[in-house]
Amino acid sequence: MQYEIKGGNLPVLLCRLEAGESMLCEGGSMAWMDDEIEMETKGGGLGKVVGRMFTGEHMFMNRYIARQPGEIAFASSFPGSIKAITVTPDRPIIAQKSSFLACIGNIDISVFFQKKLRAGFFGGEGFLMQKFSGNGLVFVEIDGSAVEYDIPAGDCKIIDTGYLAMMDASCSMDTRTVKGVKNVLFGGEGLFNTVVHGPGHIVLQSMPISKTAASLYASMPHPGN
What we know:
The protein is mainly β. It has a single domain, classed as Double-stranded beta-helix (4-Layer Sandwich). The protein has helices at about 45-55, 115-120, 180-185, 210-220, and strands at about 1-5, 10-15, 20-25, 30-35, 35-40, 60-65, 70-75, 80-85, 95, 100-115, 130-145, 145-150, 155-160, 165-170, 170-175, 190-195, 200-205. Strand 1 and strand 2 form a beta hairpin.
């Protein structure tokens, strides 16, 4: 399979499949495709279907199979970026909810449960995230532009709510209270920050949907104003 990402901040993923190759994608992600490619809908077990529902994905997924060489395109659902992530048996990936776009290879998509209660309640990512494991290529959606860091063992990165897009499963996530009453009341950063500890690779995003939605809502006219 060969792929190309086009479109700048309104990206589309173009994939050229050879005969017999197939791709799995989130329902509704396919934008266009050649006639040589066929679709089949799959759900998997009840646990996987329910897990996808709680992580903001469609309950069912679509597999596209190339009977002959052909092209298929997957469009992003939000202005931002599409990033290709290589997943190997020794490098599973944890990602934000609703980030999955498509994949090729032997990829298992499951629910990652945030075990630390404080991180689940106050970390901004919630208790449920997505986990990609196996062997293959996963295409994920990033809100805005992607910025990447390698965090060594014993170090950490402090992140505001919503800006963490994904991390290696070797990383761990916690929260840290913003210090100082003045900072909390007037700093505009809230009461908690997300803290990601290494070792591992992380991907941050510059325009979280939650921040964008809040800004748009504040700019909209409201009844009585």
